[in-house]
Every structure is written in structure tokens, then in C-alpha cells.
Amino acid sequence: MQQEPSRKVLLWLVAVGFFMQTLDATIVNTALPAMAKSLGESPLQMQSVVVAYSLAMAMLIPASGWLADRFGSRRVFFSAIVLFVIGSVCCAMAQNLAQLVAARVVQGLGGALLLPVGRLVVLRTFPREQFLQAMSFVAIPGLIGPLIGPTLGGWLVEAVSWHWIFLINVPVGLVGCIATLRYMPGEPVTFVTRFDLAGYLMLAFGMVSLSLALDGLASMGLRQASVLVLMVFGLASLVAYWLHAARRADPLFSPRLFSVDTLRIGLLGNLFSRLGSSCMPFLIPLLMQVTMGYSPLQAGMMMLPVALAGMSMKRFTTPLITRFGYRQVLVGNTLMVGLVMASFGLADPAQPLWLRVLQLAVFGAVNSLQFTAMNTVTLKDLDHAMASSGNSLLSMVQMLAMGMGVAAAGAVLAAFTAFFQPAGTAQTLSAFQSTFVCMGLITVASAAIFWQLSPEDRASSQAATTADAADHG
Q1: CATH of the domain at 391
Q2: What CA dihedral angle connects 261, 267, 272 and 275, to 10 degrees?
Q3: What membrane topology was assigned to this protein in its record (predicted)?
Q4: What is the 3-state secondary structure (H, E, C) of 353-382?
Q5: pLDDT, tens digit, for every residue of 350-363?
Q6: Domain enclosing residue 153, as ranges
Q7: The whole model's pTM is what?
């Protein structure tokens, strides 16, 4: 790609922001048992650390475009890095679980703006014919973050302490702040439409209530009545938003988006299939450390086959969809993802290492195919007027599903742990095994959603590349 040096630096700046965001979404998982021990908590009750980050990101993503237009992309991107670094420092200084969760919310709010605003800057800086190539470059660090995150997290926990999985963001963030001020173009603030604050509050309250209800089943000690009330309020708030958006001229997400069949099916499929599969990066390192005696570094290294197989699978995605179509690929692959997840119900300390590595690699491959195919089918039929809004909605659903998936897995794990009391090692292993089977079945159930796709839908190489560039999976 031929371009000015400042454009090259700008691409690297956006790529590093994406890397920071995806790294922090995965680096925490292998450190959870060490965090739990340091904070005096049970390692089986630490899912709120992961949920808080994903939920905070899901909350702010809908407002990212408006904020960039209202205050300027450079100012918002700079503020996002500062907020992310402040959240990271607060995470490292946390003295108890409540403080850590609050700090993860701050970190997630900063992370929520890094990719959408960075992508918007690239769109406005590069000619249309270079945009896809530029976003493909930006996406590479986003794939590397999940690759090294678990292993780096495990190594830092053993070499120094868990606090450093957050403190490493500080020097990167400082360099990012300087580069943003120097190389990111300062766009004049233009006139923007009034922000749909009422709709945003309804949507955010609905997402938070449903997520807290799920998390409350596992770790917050909420009574069943409180959980029920939260769920009812959450659902009512989402319904109220839908009714509000239907009669507003400029809603956050227009109901017209859902007139596009592939977007409607793709979003629902994303939500329900990720409810199952997104819990795996949380459950697998926990299983290995709590029941199989793995060190944090060993548990992190066991996640390498997942990431490597996922990256290797990208090249086969477009040919598969071109040949078999979205419906056949997504229905068959969703069933495969669920069954592979359920196969972790056979996990045992006596299992041969090669078999465990093969199992993890197969999961990484089918999960990667799932994410790319879901993202592509969701966005492929949107016209230019709806592309930005549809992409933001997809990003929000992805992060919401990730948080709710981990919360749901934590609730199921807590239920099975109580069922198999006393919770010795053997009983805890049984709780994990049962949880994997349940979460796998949730993923299997979502295959029925993808069956609603037209059998004629096929892939284009450009659509698949765009989905990879936007993939949060």
C-alpha cells in the first residue's frame, strides 16, 4: 500500500488500539485464579471481572459514532486511550473484587471507543479503494491479541504478579497518546443531529439489567426474586426502546435495519450462538488450573492451539461458503461448535496431552469459521446508508453476548458446584464437565436460527475480508 508516512503511522496507531482492546479481553482469563487468591475470593466466582469489561464495551459502542462526530475523532480517540490507561491502573490497584469490577468498567468504556472510532478515522483518511486493504492491516493485531493474551497473562502471573497484566498497558497507552496528538488528523467538529439520549438509556439499562440478572445467579448472592425483577425490567426496557425507535425519525438503531433478512437472522444467530461459545476462553483456563493442577503459564499455553487453528481457518472460510452457501455452513458448523464444546465434558486429568491439544485446535478452527461466517452474513446485504449503523449494532451484540455468555456459564457452574457438594476436586471437575455440556447444548440450539437463511446465499471474497476486519471473535 503506497501512502504518506503519516498515514502509515496512523494505521499502526489504530492497529495498536485494536490490539490493546482485544488483548485485555483475553489476558485476564488465565490470571483469574491468582486474582481470586489475592483478593480472598473463590476462583469459581470471578466471572464478573470478565462480564464487567464486555458489558461496559457493549453499553458505549452505540454512542461511539455520535461522540466522534460531536467532539472530533482525534479528541475522542485520545480520551479513549486515557480512559483505558486509567482503568488499567485502577485494576492493578484494586484491593477487593468490587473495586476490580468497577475498574474493569472504566477500562471497558475506554476500550469500547478504540476500534469504532479508529475504524471511522481510517474510513475518512483513506480513499475508498484503499479502505478494505487498510482495515485488513488493522485487523491483524486484533487476531494476535487473543493469540498471545492467555500465555502472556499466565507468564506475568508467574514471573511477577497478576497486577502486571494491567500495568503493561500504561507505557503502550502513553505512546499511543503522543502518537494520536501528532499523527491523527484533527477534524473540525461538524453539526450533528441531537443524540437519542432516551433511546440510549433504555437500551443500556436493558442490557445491564439482563446481564446483572445472569451474573446475580452466580456471584452476587441475589435472591431469586431480585433476579426475576432485574430480568423483567431489562426486557421491558428493551421493548420500550423498540417502540421508541419505531416512532423516532433518528433513533440509535432504526427498526428498518431488521427489514434485511440476513441482518436480522445474523444478529439473532450471533447473540444466541455466542451465549454458548464465548464462555470457553473463561472456562478452559479455569478448568485446567482449578481441577488439573496446571500453572497459569501452562494454562495460557494450552490456549495457543485454539488461536493458531482459528487463524489458519480464515483462508478456508470463503471457499467453504462459496461452495456450500451460508445456510449449510452455519447450520452444520454451529452443530459442530456445540458438540465440540460438549466434548469437554469428557475432560479428565488422565486425558493424553495430544488429545487435549487436538480437541482445543478443533474448537479453535470451527469457532473461527463460525465467527467469520456470522459476521459476513449479517453485514453483506446492507446498503451504504445502513452500513455504519448495522456494523455498530453487530459490535454491540457481539460484546453483549460475550458478557452474557460468561455470566450464564458462571451461573451454570455455580449451580452444578452446589449440586455436587462437597466441592472437592472430583466434584468440581464434575461441575465443569456438566457446564461444558450445557453451554454446548445452548450453541446447538442456535443452529435453528441459521436454518432460516436462504440456501442461495453465497460468499464474496470482499465480504469475508470485511468481516475479518470487523471480527471481535
Answers
A1: 1.20.1250.20
A2: 170
A3: Multi-pass membrane protein
A4: HHHHHHHHHHHHHHHHHHHHHHHHHHHCCC
A5: 889 899 999 999 99
A6: 1-195
A7: 0.82
